[in-house]
């Protein structure tokens, strides 16, 4: 019987062990997409206890900090919401999470949480209700008394070289400026451009956001869809000055409906007047903005990330009480493969297709994406159009293996830019270790089964590339 979280955890064959320890384990991490707070990085926040890092709570501004993966598990265990996101005794919240985790066999959160305890606190025994008090005491003592256990210290311990945060176009990026000016920050922190609120013309708050966008470029109002594009372009150039490498689009599905400037303006004005839009009108406006931005991304060498097949905030009551990004989103089935291809094709027609990474929350889209990206590659860079890593609900052993198998069978796995955390938790870098182990094990299986030669130079190139060097090359870091 293998030992839980032993040195060879997830490494089930000799080749996997060799590849992980020789080539993957010690490479730096490029976290090209996450939701970490640049303010907390600059202020070098210190957490008092593990509950504060893992579970957080309601902040003074009304938003919530914490890991919504963990919140979802606790809700499934019948835990009262106040003991999940409320501002109650942190130890009590920790105990309720411990009770939940102990039952979560087969869930990636079980692996992630225990990996974090081992990696950052030297706790090799799995967390249970029996040892919860000892774990709480040890982690609290380290967090409160070890001077290296600040936000920056944790990132440095994780061997992170680059952090790509997720930022709204109207953001002042003041915290990024402060980080860049601080010589004590030993890793790069760069903003990523997330213009969802300017694209989601069908969502609540669109009109108010357009006014914010106008103010961010010194205008009193934006009158047309072209004005919106112009404002976003100005903000993107501002982001680029701050070191931005990527844009990010969180879409319910990939839209594509041809749209002239005049049509886009008509739809935009209807929305600004509070009129109800048809689905076709929504698709037309979104397509117009995405195509215009895609061309700007290509010109400015900004990577375009597309995330889709998700329906957000499905529990209306909870959305009203705890708001967005609190664990009430679901996987969506999106029949938008042809729309994805048409979007890429339209940009490719004029040689203005940017480097693009495509993520779907539906695992059945993997092969679709794998076949689609093969139709739009170019000599500009190897693997210019990428299948994104297993994302969000797919961020498990099975999900990662399925994504990599699909990428390998339909594209070139050796060009894959690898893992991202997509996380709000500073301890989540343990997930890179998890991914690298699973990746090395999968490649090791192919070698052990005689499906790929045991050629050390070739294997080194593949493993080191996926772990670090491909992302470094792709994002120009």
List the helices and strands and how they pair.
Blueprint: H1 14-24, E1 29-31, H2 38-43, H3 50-54, E2 57-58, E3 64-65, H4 68-76, H5 90-102, H6 108-121, H7 132-145, H8 151-157, E4 160-164, H9 174-181, E5 188-190, H10 196-199, H11 206-216, H12 225-241, E6 246-250, H13 261-272, H14 279-300, E7 303-308, E8 310-311, H15 316-322, E9 330-331, H16 337-349, E10 356-360, H17 366-373, E11 385-387, H18 397-410, H19 430-448, H20 456-475
Parallel strand pairs: 1-4, 4-5, 6-7, 7-10, 10-11
Antiparallel strand pairs: 2-3, 8-9
Features:
477 residues; alpha/beta; 11 strands
Walkthrough of the structure:
By secondary structure, the protein is α/β, with parallel strands linked by helices. 49% of the residues lie in helices and 8% in strands. It has 20 helices and eleven strands.
Query: What does the radius of gyration come to?
Result: 23 Å
Tell me the structural class: alpha/beta
| Separation, N- and C-terminal Cα atoms | 43 Å
Estimate what percentage of residues fall within beta strands: 5-15%
The count of DSSP E runs of length 2 or more, i.e. the number of strands, is: 11
Q: What can be said about the biggest beta sheet?
A: 4 strands, parallel
Per DSSP, the total helix count is 20
- Strands in their spatial order, largest beta sheet: 6-7-10-11
Low-pLDDT sequence parts: none
Shape descriptor: globular
Mean pLDDT: 96
Percentage of helical residues? 40-55%
In summary, what is this structure?
The chain is α/β, with parallel strands linked by helices.
């Amino acid at each position: 019987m293998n030992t839980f979280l032993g040195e060879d955890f997830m490494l089930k064959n000799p080749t996997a062990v060799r590849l992980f320890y020789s080539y993957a384990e010690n490479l730096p991490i490029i976290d090209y997409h996450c939701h970490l707070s640049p303010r907390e990085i600059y202020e070098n926040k210190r957490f008092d206890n593990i509950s504060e890092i893992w579970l957080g709570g309601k902040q003074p501004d009304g938003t919530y900090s914490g890991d919504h993966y963990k919140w979802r598990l606790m809700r499934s265990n019948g835990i009262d919401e106040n003991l999940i996101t409320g501002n109650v005794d942190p130890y009590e919240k920790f105990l309720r999470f411990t009770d939940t985790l102990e039952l979560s066999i087969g869930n990636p959160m079980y692996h992630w949480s225990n990996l974090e305890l081992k990696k950052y606190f030297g706790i090799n025994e799995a967390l249970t209700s029996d040892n919860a008090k000892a774990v709480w005491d040890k982690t609290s003592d380290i967090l409160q008394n070890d001077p290296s256990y600040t936000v920056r210290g944790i990132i440095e311990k994780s061997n992170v070289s680059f952090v790509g945060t997720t930022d709204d176009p109207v953001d002042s990026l003041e915290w990024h400026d402060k980080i860049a000016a601080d010589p004590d920050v030993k890793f790069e922190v760069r903003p990523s451009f997330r213009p969802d609120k300017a694209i989601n013309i069908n969502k609540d708050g669109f009109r108010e956001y357009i006014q914010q966008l106008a103010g961010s470029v010194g205008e009193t109002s934006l009158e047309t869809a072209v004005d919106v594009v112009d404002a976003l372009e100005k903000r993107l150039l501002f982001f680029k000055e701050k070191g931005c490498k990527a844009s990010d689009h969180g879409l319910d599905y990939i839209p594509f409906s041809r749209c002239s400037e005049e049509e886009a303006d008509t739809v935009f004005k209807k929305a600004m007047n509070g009129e109800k839009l048809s689905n076709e009108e929504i698709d037309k406006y979104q397509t117009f903005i995405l195509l215009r931005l895609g061309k700007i991304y290509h010109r400015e060498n900004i990577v375009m990330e597309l995330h889709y097949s998700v329906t957000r905030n499905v529990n209306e009551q909870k959305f009203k009480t705890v708001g967005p990004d609190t664990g009430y989103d679901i996987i969506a089935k999106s029949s938008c493969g042809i729309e994805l291809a048409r979007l890429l094709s339209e940009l490719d027609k004029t040689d203005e297709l940017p480097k693009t990474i495509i993520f779907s929350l539906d695992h059945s889209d993997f092969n679709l994406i794998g076949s689609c990206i093969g139709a739009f590659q170019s000599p500009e860079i190897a693997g210019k159009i990428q299948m994104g890593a297993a994302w969000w609900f797919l961020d498990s052993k099975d999900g990662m293996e399925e994504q990599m198998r699909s990428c390998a069978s339909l594209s070139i796995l050796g060009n894959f830019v690898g893992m991202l955390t997509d996380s709000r938790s500073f301890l989540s870098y343990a997930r890179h270790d998890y991914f690298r182990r699973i990746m090395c094990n999968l490649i090791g299986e192919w070698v052990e089964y005689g499906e790929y030669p045991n050629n050390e130079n070739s294997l080194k190139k593949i493993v080191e590339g996926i772990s670090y060097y491909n992302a470094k090359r792709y994002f120009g870091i």
